């Protein structure tokens, strides 16, 4: 057996059915009923996670007891607000193997990715042109980020739009070429297309796992190709990893990822059982130091005159304006909760659920699994279609049976096009998912085709 990758742990004991039943008592959403009067079977965790009671309590306690202007005064409430934010920063960073100074709070993961793309765009405005006016000085760390028409940005066909559109826009603004790693027939990244990563590659952005197929990206060969490209081109590409799907379901270690060549990763609180309205960019100190500010205003400045301003060091440089204080407190509570359950044990439990679901889905007439139909190197995220039935109709039938799944293109149109479809239905698992819920899904989905095609 090969050694674990930087983001994997050795095999762990899955959460037991008894432990899952105990955890389900922590989630208030299970106290309500579905349309059919039965307990709701929520199978849309890849879109947004349900919240345990401790997250709701943490937000409420902050607003009731410690609501002040963080970092802006010395009275008690302000001190408590500041301490709460920085405590959340330190805890969330540690949860993913990073240092507090490497974590920038953002509105969501989409903003985190855009933060890097926009910073590279700003750095490119100061690109030296044969010593012309406005050239960046040799000592400017942002020179590493500058892009021009001779440079290339590499993504994958499997990306969520949040990790594709910002790079399309950056390519359009800078003249850089956009290229991509393609997919094989199963929807996994095709390593035969690694040759798109060359000495001209300046940015490599990819999702750690697909939000459509659940396939986990083969990071080792991809990062090795990026390092080789850096040696060939004299400048290592900036590697940005979208971990929205993996962070809620498996242990992450940013220090190990950074050692392997990852410069930044994006996190989303609401997919990790935490609050909405907050996410984070976790990045190396070298990248954060090189990035010029994107949003400007209060809190991120050092000295302001009528003519110019100077800016705080990271992470404050990238956190202009008021912070999502209560949301950060809720996120802190969520990662504490996930830590108690154990990320490695959650991963093992979801592997069992995935195998059970795939086995049952293979038996449903007319059902096509979109992506790998095996449970190797994948998450509990399974997209599918029913022959002759629109995915939205599939979703409505399942909803009538008290089963909640996602329908549509899941903000990932190119990977759907790869499979020759426009949309799909998708089920995905979380800490409260049970075998019984999956069996309810299987029972309901088995009747969809006969209902519409009779």
Present the secondary structure layout.
Layout: H1 17-24, E1 41-42, H2 53-65, H3 76-95, E2 103-106, H4 109-125, E3 152-156, H5 165-174, E4 177-181, E5 201-207, H6 219-233, E6 238-242, H7 254-260, E7 264-268, E8 279-283, H8 285-290, E9 301-304, E10 309-311, H9 325-341, H10 343-361, E11 367-370, E12 381-386, H11 391-400, E13 403-404, E14 406-408, H12 413-418, E15 424-428, H13 435-446, H14 448-453
Q: Give me the oligomer status.
A: single chain
Which structural category do the helix and sheet elements fall into?
A: alpha/beta
Major sheet characteristics:
7 strands, mixed
Number of domains: 2
Cofactor: pyridoxal 5'-phosphate
Enzyme class: transferase
Keywords: Pyridoxal phosphate, Transferase
Catalytic activity: (sulfur carrier)-H + L-cysteine = (sulfur carrier)-SH + L-alanine
